[in-house]
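Work Package 3 (structural annotation) set out to generate three-dimensional models for the target panel prioritized at the project kickoff. During this period the team completed the workflow that converts sequence records into discrete structure tokens, so that structures can be stored uniformly alongside our sequence database. As a representative example, we reproduce one entry of 221 residues exactly as it appears in the project archive.
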Amino acid sequence: MKIKVYNKKIPYIVIDDWYTDTELKSIWSEIDFYTNGRDLKDVLRADDTIVARDNDTNKSLAESYRWYPNAYYNSNQTSMSPIFRLSKKLGDDELHNVFKDVYPWYNMFLSTNRSTPMVSYYEGGDYYKPHYDSFMYTQLIWLTRKPKLWTDGNLYVEPIEHKKEKILFKNNRSVIFPSMMKHSVDPIQWKEKPKESGYGRYTITYFMYHEPTYEIPEDTK
């Protein structure tokens, strides 16, 4: 992995080559399962889900397709899912060693102990307007098939209000940032419209949070 921290006051981390070749192969097998499981017209659009919405119109700020792995696996089956299994990479020593000196943001990152995944898929014209997430940290992992048949679909983050910083889309690139940071995706544009689905822009998102654990004293049971 190639890891770089930007804007240490309110940091975001860009990591290239997030998955190894072997890991990518297994991740694509799960993405293919979702993509080919039903016609896209039957797949949830962002507006059909819990999504960031315009405060005035209640209209979804996103246009994209979505799959929620939690809907496909119960708690005893998540080990079958590469997306669930590979969330453990968030505990990688190399990542933590780069981030640990960014005070106090690393403390919040270190305190996360749970994540919930989502898979998004963007085709021509799909986008996500500026919004924030209601978690502690957000990780995005970007994927696309070869040949890449579209342009744009880049991420914009706002570590300072109204001052956007552009992060170019790159296959197998990951971005991690505090969830309260506003971020957006500009519309993707087909260079050549494919004859079959699955050639757009995929994002695997992990929403990271802290779930308190409590031990009940023996004498109170």
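DSSP finds four helices and 14 strands in the chain.
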